[in-house]
Amino acid sequence: MDPSDALAACITAKEAGLLEPQDPPDQKVNYGVLLLQAIFEHWPKAAVCNDVDG
After folding, report:
1. Is residue 21 part of a domain?
2. Residue 48 counted as domain residue
3. Can you tell me the mean pLDDT for 38-43?
4. Residues 11, 35, 45, CA angle at the centre, nearest 5°?
5. Radius of gyration of the chain (CA)
6. What does 9-53 look like in DSSP terms, one character per residue?
């Protein structure tokens, strides 16, 4: 697999065991998106600095 394609790994939901009854049989699952969501799910929110002078 080309490293640039690592986050574009799509398989069918049926192959992943994630197929819901209302989903079409060819529903795709992107593992790259699921990985990023899992990583950043509990990531702390950044503090926003509104100070103009820095």
Report:
1. yes
2. yes
3. 84
4. 150
5. 18
6. -EEEHHHHT---TTS-TT-EEEHHHHHHHHHHTTPPPPPPP--TT
Of 14-18, 19-23, 41-45, 50-54, the least confident = 50-54
Residue 35 domain-assigned (yes or no) = yes
Domain total in the chain: 1
Beta-carbon contacts of 7 under 8 Å, excluding residues fewer than 6 positions away, are 30, 32, 33, 35, 36
Q: What is the pLDDT of residue 43?
A: 78
Domain carrying residue 47: 8-54
Q: Which of 19-23, 30-34, 38-42 has the highest mean pLDDT?
A: 38-42
Residues 19, 3: Cα–Cα separation, whole Å: 28
